[in-house]
Amino acid sequence: MISVTLSDLAEFDGLIPWLVSGAWKEHFEPSELKAAGLSIHTLRFLDEEEAYDDPTFLLGSEVREPTGRRHRTAVSFYIDPEDEEYPVDFTTDCSCDFSYTCRHAAATLEFLSSIAATAGPARRSPVNPEIGHWLRLIRQAEQNVTANAARATSPAKPYNKFLAYCIEFRESRYPAGSEVTPYFGLHIGSYNKSGGHVIESTHATADPAKPAKYMAPEDLAICAAYHARRRKVGAWDSDMPLGGSGWDEILNAALATGRLFFSRVSSAYRSSRIYQTLTEGPPLHVEPGWELFENGSARPILKLPGDTLEIIPTLPLRYIDSAGPTLGLLHSEIPDEILTVWPEGPLIPAGQVPEINAELRSIPTATPLPTPAEKPAQILSGLAPVPTLHITWVHCGVFQKRHIGGMVRFQYPGCPVLTSSRRWPPTRRRKPRGWTATSA
Ligand SMILES: [Zn+2]
Fold this sequence. Notes:
Blueprint: H1 6-10, H2 15-21, H3 30-33, E1 39-46, E2 57-64, E3 70-79, E4 88-94, H4 103-116, H5 129-153, E5 161-171, E6 180-191, E7 197-203, H6 219-233, E8 240-241, H7 248-257, E9 260-266, E10 276-277, E11 279-280, E12 284-285, E13 287-292, E14 298-303, E15 309-312, E16 318-321, E17 326-331, H8 336-341, H9 353-361, E18 386-396, E19 401-411, H10 435-439
Parallel strand pairs: 5-9, 11-17, 12-17
Antiparallel strand pairs: 1-2, 2-3, 3-4, 5-6, 6-7, 6-8, 9-10, 13-14, 15-16, 16-17, 18-19
The structure holds zinc ion (ZN).
């Protein structure tokens, strides 16, 4: 769909002659200008808010390759008739790998030039620049009158864009799904005709000092807190890891707007994100505890009261229940500060469990910290150990040469063979004391 017409272009002083002159071509490599077979699928005006640096107007196009693949290109125009050297300037951005002044942008400008070329001979501009300026003011004022009249007759259409507060669970790729980190970021969303919403993948600037049209009054304080936090933690990425203290103000207010969303992002399927609206869930009880393994080792965990719950490591701790989806607080008899660090503990080998238990009991909390069960030692009597010899390759010496080595193990009948991670034989052997003296 092409929704840019010659009369649209004529609204911008000097744009049509500039396009027809081909002055824009000097910004492109000759090879980009010669790209054959590209066709413009759509061309339309975009909201200027989607551009970073305040252009006079912004055009978006969809350019189709001969292969059928489409790229989205945006061209920001800067028009300043007072600027004698560059009355018209532009920047481009594209979804292709080259991003700036690529062949898709060139094809878009070529297409615009072809629209501009349908204009008749250029109006002669007044000799006196002051008169020209005054005429422009009159023309602008007339356009404002028309625009105001149009606004007055049609009922105010609600602005369909909004600021979306987004929590994303990102699964790391290697190994797949091994770790899931929640992130918090701001995006622009829009309501579609069926009442649903679409969240754009690009981030919203959401500067409270220069509020954009998609921001509502209640967004200003949240955005101020969000940017203050980013500065404080030095998060220069668009998203901040969602963890630690100081999130109450942001999350509670974002929930209250009804525009807090939740998405699960796998690095493999970045393009297909589904954002669900989060509502507030009830405070839930969480129990610090232990995951016990067959061999007697144990790992500290937090036991959640449901399979669909996932922990958000903020202070105080929160959860997201993907069944809702809801966001709520977690509480326990154990203080929040301890709860947040509890699941970070490592796997504790069976042999160290009694020692760790003694340590945990010595920590003076109001409610005692849970301890893993100690696997009682089994006393076997009347069994004779069976010596076994294991022959294997071993690497020893400073140069780690390969030798055949043997290892004697004593195995009790019916008991698992204990394997040791220690290298055998020891790779470095000290010379016996006095060896040098004896040989001398
Ligand atoms: Zn491109």
